[in-house]
Structures are given as structure tokens and as C-alpha cells.
């Protein structure tokens, strides 16, 4: 049964950075989720982004399929093509999506984003590129507060080489609502934790997102995440959980099938591909040894990304 959930609100513009860092630490210990406000992105820009996203998903399927993702995970994923809970026997999440990342990053033999033709969707690419840049700037501020919240230098992630050319993704998402008849007990997004450092999520206000704060509890308790107008929902990812030896929690979440159509945009922040993710000194001791071996960011992400492709990654 879903209960009422009150998540902390972090003000990114607060000049008292130590106080923000303290609040972030508490939020990451208690929930692994919080709202980010005063992040500097205008509401009108969010509306423009959601409008452009809707325009893309309204294109005929054959047009969208021309941009289907390849090995590098950029472009279009049709309905049911990904299953975020890779251990689930029920395959296929009821959403379609579109991934965009930095043009500078070469992840496989393909190193270019895919774009719908300008004559079909004027300004689409420019809107997405602008969102990517704005979110990268917000993430940079957030990452430095997260470093402070762990008692580290605020430039810690830059200094260890995790934030020079970080792999980040914009993921546009469309949940079709009850008009889609092939759901058969599937979820909008099956239960998962995100892979990277953190995720910053924008939704259109249609409910559906739930979190499970204690994944080991049986039966699991799923709680609705209320919409807060203008706020981004931030959650800790598995790479940060590894860095912090499970001090910061990458909380399980999912999206229920929705009656109405629903649009959301996730911004996934990961580190630089070649950075090593290994337990922070301050997060381990003799009594609490590292729970995960060190791993290169790219190896971890490749493995996790390929596991969510329902029929294998093309
Ligand atoms: O659409 C949402 O609200 C959540 C999406 C999500 O959890 C994801 O893409 O990782
Ligand atoms: Fe997620």
C-alpha cells in the first residue's frame, strides 16, 4: 500500500553551503531522494522542453524508429524495449524514450547523438542541447555540495578525474496511459535503482513515481512521490552508493501504469568514463571494509546499460 511521503527540499541558491551540505547528507542517508529548488532553470523552459518531447513522441512510429538506439545508447527506445528491473521475468516497461548525451563522448563505434530532421521538428535539437548544458551546470553545483556533504573538498570529484567530461544522459520519457492495451500487468518503469552518481528528474505532474525506502522489507512498502511544482526530484545512484560504501542510498523506485499519458525527463549524471569508482577513505574502516571492488565507471555502466535492453542491445 502506498503511504504519504514527505521528502526534504534542498535550495540550490542557499549561500550557506555548509547548511545545504548538511541537509543533503541527511536526505541521502534517510531517503536517497530529495527535491531540488531554486536551481535556476525557468519554468517556461521546462514547459518548452516537455512540449518538444511530446512533439517527438507524437511522430509516426516509422519516423521514430529511424532513430532507434544503437550500441552507444543514444536515440529512440520504442515501447517495451527496455526493462529497468533486469531480474524481472515480466519483460518490457510500458514507456518509450529517447537518450541524448554529450557530443564529445565516444562510447562505442558510434559517437554521435541522433536527431529528428530539423524540418520535421524545428528547434528540437537546440532545445535538447540547451537542456543538456543547463542541467550539466546544475549538476556541477550539486556534485560539489555532495562532496561537501561527505566531508570532502568541494572540488573532490573534479580532482579525482570524475568530472572533466562526465557521461550524462538526458532521457525523455513518455508513458502512454490507458490507451495502450499491451500492458498485461507490466509497469510504466519496473523497480530499479539508477546506475550513476545521481539523477535529476523533471515530471509533468502526472502521478506514478513511487519509492521503496527499504528494499529488504517484506512485503515491500511503496510510497508515492508527490509532485512539487518547479522542483527537480534528485536521487542517489548506484555509483555514489559504491563510492560511499552504502552510506548514501540508491533507493529503489518505479513508475506505476498511469491512467493518463505521462511525460518526464531524467538527467542521469555519471562520472568520466575512465574514472575509478572506489570506496572513499572516510566511508570504510577495519570494522566496515569496502563492500564493492573498485571499478572503472565505463565498465560498470556498460554492464548495467546492456542488461536493461529487453531483447539484448542492438
Ligand atoms: O519517469 C519517472 O518518473 C522515473 C523514470 C526513472 O526512474 C528512470 O528513467 O530511471
Ligand atoms: Fe530511475
From TrEMBL:
Task: Report if keyword Oxidoreductase is assigned.
Answer: yes
Q: What is this protein called in UniProt?
A: Aminocyclopropanecarboxylate oxidase protein
Can you tell which superkingdom this protein's organism belongs to? Answer: Eukaryota
Recorded E.C. number(s)?
A: 1.14.17.4
State if Oxidoreductase is listed as a keyword. Answer: yes
Q: Which UniProt keywords apply?
A: Oxidoreductase
Amino acid at each position: 500500500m502506498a503511504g504519504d511521503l514527505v521528502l526534504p527540499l534542498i535550495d540550490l541558491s542557499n549561500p550557506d553551503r555548509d547548511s545545504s551540505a548538511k541537509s543533503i547528507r541527511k536526505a541521502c542517508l534517510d531517503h536517497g531522494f530529495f527535491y531540488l529548488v531554486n536551481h535556476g532553470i525557468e519554468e517556461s523552459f521546462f514547459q518548452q522542453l516537455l512540449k518538444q518531447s511530446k512533439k517527438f513522441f507524437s511522430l509516426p512510429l516509422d519516423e521514430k524508429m529511424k532513430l532507434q538506439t544503437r550500441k552507444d545508447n543514444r536515440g529512440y527506445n520504442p515501447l517495451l524495449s527496455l526493462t529497468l528491473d533486469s531480474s524481472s521475468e515480466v519483460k518490457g516497461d510500458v514507456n518509450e524514450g529517447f537518450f541524448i548525451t554529450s557530443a564529445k563522448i565516444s562510447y562505442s563505434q558510434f559517437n554521435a547523438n541522433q536527431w529528428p530532421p530539423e524540418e520535421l521538428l524545428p528547434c528540437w535539437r537546440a532545445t535538447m542541447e540547451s537542456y543538456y548544458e543547463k542541467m550539466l551546470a546544475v549538476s556541477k553545483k550539486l556534485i560539489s555540495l555532495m562532496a561537501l556533504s561527505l566531508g570532502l573538498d568541494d572540488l573532490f570529484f573534479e580532482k579525482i578525474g570524475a568530472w572533466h567530461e562526465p557521461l550524462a544522459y538526458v532521457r525523455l520519457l513518455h508513458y502512454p496511459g490507458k490507451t495502450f492495451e499491451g500492458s498485461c500487468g507490466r509497469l510504466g518503469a519496473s523497480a530499479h535503482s539508477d546506475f550513476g552518481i545521481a539523477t535529476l528528474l523533471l515530471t509533468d505532474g502526472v502521478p506514478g513515481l513511487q519509492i521503496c525506502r527499504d528494499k529488504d522489507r517484506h512485503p515491500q512498502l511503496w510510497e508515492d512521490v508527490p509532485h512539487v511544482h518547479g522542483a527537480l526530484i534528485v536521487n542517489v545512484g548506484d555509483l555514489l552508493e559504491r563510492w560511499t560504501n552504502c552510506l548514501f542510498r540508491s533507493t529503489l523506485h518505479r513508475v506505476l501504469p498511469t491512467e493518463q499519458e505521462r511525460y518526464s525527463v531524467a538527467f542521469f549524471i555519471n562520472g568520466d568514463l575512465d574514472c575509478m569508482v572506489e570506496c572513499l577513505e572516510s566511508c570504510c574502516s577495519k570494522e566496515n571494509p569496502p563492500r564493492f571492488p573498485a571499478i572503472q565507471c565505463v565498465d560498470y555502466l556498460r554492464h548495467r546499460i546492456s542488461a536493461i535492453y529487453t531483447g539484448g542491445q542492438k
